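Worked example

This section walks through a single chain of length 321. The input is the sequence exactly as stored; nothing has been trimmed or padded.
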Amino acid sequence: MKVLVTGGAGYVGSTLVPLLLDAGHEVTVLDALLFGGTPLLGAWAHPRFRLLAGDIRDGATVDAAVTGMDAVVHLAAIVGDPACARDPDLARQTNLEASLGLIAAAEQAGVRRFVFASTCSNYGRMADPSSLVDEDSPLAPVSLYAETKVAVEQALLGRRRHQMVVTPLRFATVFGVSPRMRFDLTVNEFTLALLRDRHLVVFGEQFWRPYVHVRDVARAILLVLAASPDKVDGEVYNVGATSQNFQKLQLVELVQPYAPDAIVEYVSRKEDPRDYRVSFTKIATRLGFEITIPVADGVAEVARLVEAGIVPGAVIGAAVP
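Given that input, the structure is written out below as tokens.
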């Protein structure tokens, strides 16, 4: 297929693009390159790769990008609660308004498939954290980031009467090594702090989150693109594995063997707006998806990266950025 990946130079996108090319697809990336295009250097010389440097808020750019495409994988966003809180207007323009414009443009251009990167943060705080939420559970977004994701999901699912096959994917919290490395994600952040700074402050160690490796996220996207429409059209899938729900304390215990002398401070919190354990049974049973890299292996991978000292700012002994 001819696949457009918005945000293809980002953390997930730069991992996904090589897999798409390896699978035989033609890949066009639309990215504003706010963090540069270096993560895409590995794909640059590939004959089936093309980069469009542009903003998804620009209608003309979007119209040109979707023309002739068979599928769109929409990853571009202001990602995470802190980034959205810093500039709420930009977050709404990018995550909501531009996403709705992209959906309309893709439909108008005759795009056959649309995969949307959503988040398990949509579940918010569970009434009973001892139970598991699934795709049919009520959504309770507690941040602007999650609110925009829920709104786009609803808009997509409301278009099922049209020809475009639409699939929102709710990712667990992503971790692992990517060409566009991020250390603001919990597993990566904890590993860096303990190895480099020998000090970590953990707020609310008892709260739950699910986690999934960035390469497994990319694999899930490929699986959805290849699936028959009756399995994915109008279907929401949580992406991860039920076994990979962890409390923050449990994550620390996985990382500590790599920095046994590091100091960990726990700051008690009785309330956390996001406290949820997620079931991933649906994607396993309907699409046969299984993760390949559990959190423990991802911690080891990130630890090796930090110890190698090849990522600026992640060098052991470096000052805190």
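What to look for: The radius of gyration is 19 Å.
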